[in-house]
Amino acid sequence: MRIDVLFADRVGIAHEILAVLAKRRLNVVAVEVDPPHIHIDAPELDVPGFGALDAALRAVPGVESVTPIDILPGTRRRLHLDALLAALPDPVLAVDRACRIVVANAAAATVAGRSEAALTGADFGRLFGDAELSDLLVDNGFRLAAGQEVTLNGQPFLLDATPIVEDGRSAGGVVTLFAPSRLGERLNALQNFDEGGFDRILGESAPVRSLKARAARVAAVDAPLLILGETGTGKELIAHACHRASPRRDKPFLALNCAAVPESLAESELFGYAPGSFTGAQRGGKPGLLELAHGGTVFLDEIGEMSPYLQAKLLRFLNDGRFRRVGGDREQTVDVRVVSATHRDLDAMVAEHSFREDLFYRLNVLSLQVPALRERGDDILLLARHFIARACAQARRPPCRLTVAASAALLANPWPGNVRQLENVIFRAVTMSDGAYLDAADLELAGARMDAETGGEPAEPSSWDEAAAAFERGLLRRLYPRYPSSRKLAARLHTSHTMIANKLRKYGIPDGT
Prior knowledge:
The chain has 22 helices and 18 strands. It is α/β, with parallel strands linked by helices and 513 residues long. The strands form 5 sheets. A 5-stranded antiparallel β-sheet has the order 6-5-9-8-7. Strands 11-12-15-10-16 form a 5-stranded parallel β-sheet, with helices on both faces. A 4-stranded antiparallel β-sheet has the order 2-3-1-4. Helix 9 (206-219) crosses helix 10 (235-244) and helix 17 (404-412) packs across helix 20 (464-479). The longest helix has 16 residues, at 380-395. The radius of gyration is 35 Å and the shape is elongated. InterPro entries: AAA+_ATPase, AAA_lid_NorR, ACT_dom, Homeodomain-like_sf, HTH_TyrR, P-loop_NTPase, PAS, PAS-like_dom_sf. Residues 2-71 form the ACT domain. This is HTH-type transcriptional regulatory protein TyrR. It is found in: Cytoplasm.
């Protein structure tokens, strides 16, 4: 039986309590003293004998109660800790201040190829074949972020260490080993926590519905995907959605913008680098996106800007899934899906020999063409209202709405920067205005449009009516060729057929275009 003795703390009371059990010749196998409790495991104590022992213990000055318990608290804590360590998928080792292993979980024993008992007492650094690793841990006070790379049984891991402090002094630390793909999952969670699937792609126009239907089909096919479209059309959003709809949805999605980094940095970011490969390199090397995204998706944005050297290295990886880190001599194999995107005309680049033809065919197994905003005009106001709501929330101001003139200005604008330009225009208008409505002038579009139409500075209107008439005339002239009837144009501008017919007659459209 195990008992919990509650007592008023005083010198010698624990000794007196144990003396009572010794006098009754009860064998004690475990004692845990945690004032005001002393927990005792006496296997020979049974229920009939408990009554007499209870009376004898209560006779000891300071003893307040004696209660049977099912398990000692320390044992319970140890069992829970063992279960917790066994459930952790990553190798975890606790080391003392001399960097000797005190505790190792099952995952660490499996990776090391030893039993948990065999790991106990081993020197931490020697386990990894790096005697200096223990000194590194001690010198850093057992504080290391997950960036130091180590190798255990030929497998690379990123080391994370947390110190254990007792009475202000270091008592060792807890070391966790992350496989590169596990760190990739953490990066993915931080970078893409709010990225959604196809529901995040706003639009009800025919081009968008067609894009979503095709994207949903190619997302399920585990093959390279090339996304084409102008700048600002949302190619990365499509790539995210395809990943979320693919069998790899639970693995990382990591991205590299090939136009944003120089060739040398892009190579190390994508493929990683070996220890000592260049000045300033991390001591243990560094995994690249391909390793971090193992099992998931790597998105290569602006693939048309990739250098010829990197094109060749990427082609080899696509051929067999194997690569070498920068400065490394060991080949590695990872399983990732490559999704790439560009606004460039890769066919023309292939013809000009500025992009490898063989790489183009490897990337272009599946393809998606993202429509420009001007090709999905029915979505402009829907997107604008969405961006207004988001911008108002960011600016912490009451919601606002578009006037009829502002809506017409948005519909008439050519949007060379596509959805990104629309979002920026709305954000600027919301930030710079205070009213409950956004008018055409708040969007700062009219001047740019008039410049494009006249080829120079716009004429100064003599009155408000003249300015409004010039705007209406320009809008109708721009839209009529695409919607060549008063009914179609009225439906496009969400207004009455009679009003549009009157305006067309007023401005002599179509004859006056």
